[in-house]
Automatic annotation (TrEMBL):
The keyword Hydrolase does not apply. CDD domains: CAP_ED (cd00038). This is Crp/Fnr family transcriptional regulator. Residues 11-78 form the Cyclic nucleotide-binding domain. Residues 145-219 form the HTH crp-type domain. It holds the Pfam family HTH_Crp_2.
């Protein structure tokens, strides 16, 4: 049975019917979370792994005075730290940006998935490494890219990630992020975000309308962002290490 999680993991390791069924069986019944509500709070004891079934969420840290930094964006199929249950407490919160359907895999079930099936073990490890690579690229953006480069890079990244799980339509994809969300993710003010959006629109690089992003000049946007998608490691979907080839569909 195909699920958003198996669709995501197939970008790292080919998975056959056995692996897809194992993932589907491990997922607990999904629950809905309202927009702007916490899925998990900072400091919780992480006894299970959360998986985004639909909608958009984010990892974030927030100061007592209300200032918030979005650390990463979580899209359908994303596994919110497959090894989080090894820690004693969660060091960040996960919040819903849109209505989110969330399912859980218990700690015992997750450990069994990885111990019983070598392909799934490899897929979860590659997914975790890719997530770390995305985090490094965000650090580069915050430290060295200009404001317009940061925004362009984020849009390029999200378009590729959504395409990888079948949620982009050519050069168009959903974009439910508000300007305050973009400001919190890119370390800027909403005023700066507004001006930057006007600049990229005026350059006819993209349009953003009705919660949908369309790349009018994908190559131009990539050049502006200095975007190289290799850090997403999605090309591994066609190659399995020797001895871990999954059976055909």
């Amino acid at each position: 049975m195909e699920t958003p999680l198996s669709r995501k993991l197939r970008n790292y390791v080919p998975l056959g019917p056995v692996e897809r069924d194992m993932l589907a069986e491990a997922l607990e019944p999904a629950r809905m979370v309202e927009p702007r509500a916490d899925i998990v709070e900072e400091g919780e004891d992480p006894r299970s792994v959360n998986v985004i079934q639909s909608g958009w969420a984010c990892r974030y840290r927030q100061f007592e005075d209300g200032r918030r930094q979005i650390i990463s964006l979580l899209l359908p199929g994303d596994c919110c730290d497959p090894h989080i249950f090894l820690l004693d407490r969660r060091d960040h919160a996960i919040g819903a940006l849109t209505p989110v359907s969330i399912a859980r895999i218990g700690a015992t079930a997750m450990a069994e998935l990885m111990s019983r099936n070598a392909a799934l073990d490899l897929a979860f490890h590659r997914e975790a490494l890719a997530a770390s690579a995305i985090q490094r690229e965000w650090t580069v953006s915050l430290g060295r890219r200009s404001g317009v480069e940061r925004l362009a890079h984020l849009f390029c990244e999200l378009h590729v990630r959504l395409s990888a799980v079948g949620l982009a339509d050519g050069t168009s994809c959903p974009m439910p992020l508000t300007q305050p969300d973009l400001a919190d993710a890119l370390g800027q003010t909403t005023v700066h975000i507004n001006r930057t959006l006007q600049d990229v629109r005026a350059a006819r690089l993209l349009t953003l309308k009705s919660r949908r992003l369309t790349l009018l000049d994908p190559d131009g946007l990539r050049r502006l962002a200095k975007f190289d998608p290799s850090y997403l490691h999605l090309q591994a979907s066609r190659v399995a290490p020797r001895g871990l080839e999954a059976p055909g569909p």
